[in-house]
Design a protein that fits this description.
By secondary structure, the protein is α/β, with parallel strands linked by helices. The protein has a single domain (11-234), classed as Rossmann fold (3-Layer(aba) Sandwich). It contains six helices and seven strands, in the order βαβαβαβαβαβαβ. The protein has helices spanning 20-31, 43-55, 70-84, 108-136, 157-177, 210-221; strands spanning 11-14, 35-40, 59-64, 89-92, 139-144, 182-189, 231-234. A seven-stranded parallel sheet has the order 3-2-1-4-5-6-7, with helices on both faces. β2, α2 (43-55) and β3 form a beta-alpha-beta unit. α3 (70-84) packs parallel to α4 (108-136) and α4 (108-136) packs parallel to α5. The radius of gyration is 17 Å and the shape is globular.
C-alpha cells in the first residue's frame, strides 16, 4: 500500500527549508502533492531546495524570511496568502544550536539568539499562519523539537531550554486549536546528521538522517482526521 497523498491544492510552509531537515521535509511534502513555500534567511540555499523539488515534478517557491523578525514573518504570510490563498501545513523547523560551553560562560547575546530562533520564531509563525488555517477549516502545525527537550544536555543548556519550551508551547497550543481542526504535533529527534548537531565522538553512519524526520512529518500530515499524534520521539536503531 503506497503512502497516502495530501488533499489536492494543499499548501505547506517549511521554515529553515534551505538545507538539512527542512529541505528533506519540503521534498517529502512535495512528493505527497503539496505546493511548497520554502522559507529561510538565505535565498541561495532556498533556491537549491526549490530546484530539487521542481526537478522531481513538484511545485515550490522560495520566500526569504527571518523568523526572529515579526515583520519578516508577517510579510511571508501575506505573500503566501496572496499567491496561494490558503495554508494547510506549517512546519516550524528553523533552529540554531549552542553546544560549546556551560551556561555560566554563555554570553547573553548568544542566549537571546537561541531563544529568538528556536522559540520566539515559532510563536511568530503560529501567530501569522494559524488564523489562516482556522479560516480555511483546519490544518497541521508541526514543530521540530529535539530529544534535548526531554533530557538534560550538558554544555547545551540554552538549546535544551528552548526545546523544552517549544514542547510546552506545542502541547498547549494544540489544546487551543484542536476545536478548529488545527492539529499541532511536536517531533523530537535525537542527533541528526546535519551541520546543526554536535558530531564529536559519534559514528555519523549510525546517526539519524534528515529523511527520517521527513518521514515522521509525512506520517503526521496523512493521519485520519479523527485523531492526531501530539508527540513523536525518534531515535537511531543503533546508538551512534
Amino acid at each position: 500500500m503506497g503512502e497516502q497523498r495530501l488533499p489536492k491544492n494543499s499548501v505547506a510552509v517549511v521554515t529553515g527549508g534551505g538545507s538539512g531537515i527542512g529541505a528533506a521535509i519540503a521534498q517529502r511534502l512535495a512528493e505527497l502533492g503539496a505546493s511548497l513555500v520554502v522559507c529561510g534567511r538565505t535565498q541561495k540555499t532556498l533556491e537549491k531546495t526549490v530546484a530539487a523539488i521542481t526537478k522531481s515534478g513538484g511545485k515550490a517557491v522560495a520566500v526569504e524570511c527571518d523568523v526572529t523578525d515579526v515583520a519578516s514573518v508577517k510579510a511571508a504570510a501575506a505573500r503566501v496568502m496572496k499567491e496561494f490563498s490558503r495554508v494547510d501545513i506549517l512546519v516550524n523547523n528553523a533552529g540554531v544550536g549552542a553546544f560549546s560551553q556551560p551556561l555560566v560562560k554563555m554570553e547573553p547575546a548568544e542566549w537571546d539568539a537561541v531563544m529568538n530562533t528556536n522559540l520566539r520564531g515559532v510563536f511568530y509563525c503560529i501567530r501569522a499562519f494559524a488564523p489562516e488555517m482556522i479560516k480555511g477549516g483546519g490544518g497541521h502545525i508541526i514543530n521540530i523539537s529535539s530529544l534535548a527537550g526531554k533530557n538534560p544536555m550538558a554544555n547545551g543548556a540554552a538549546y535544551a531550554a528552548s526545546k523544552w519550551g517549544l514542547n510546552g508551547l506545542s502541547y498547549s497550543v494544540a489544546e487551543e486549536l484542536r476545536g478548529s481542526d488545527v492539529r499541532v504535533s511536536v517531533v523530537c529527534p535525537g542527533s541528526v546528521d546535519t551541520d546543526l548537531s554536535p558530531h564529536e565522538g559519534k559514528n555519523k553512519s549510525k546517526m539519524l538522517q534528515p529523511d527520517d524526520v521527513a518521514h515522521a512529518v509525512a506520517m503526521l500530515v496523512t493521519q485520519a482526521p479523527q485523531s492526531f499524534v501530539s508527540e513523536l520521539l525518534i531515535r537511531p536503531t543503533q546508538k551512534p
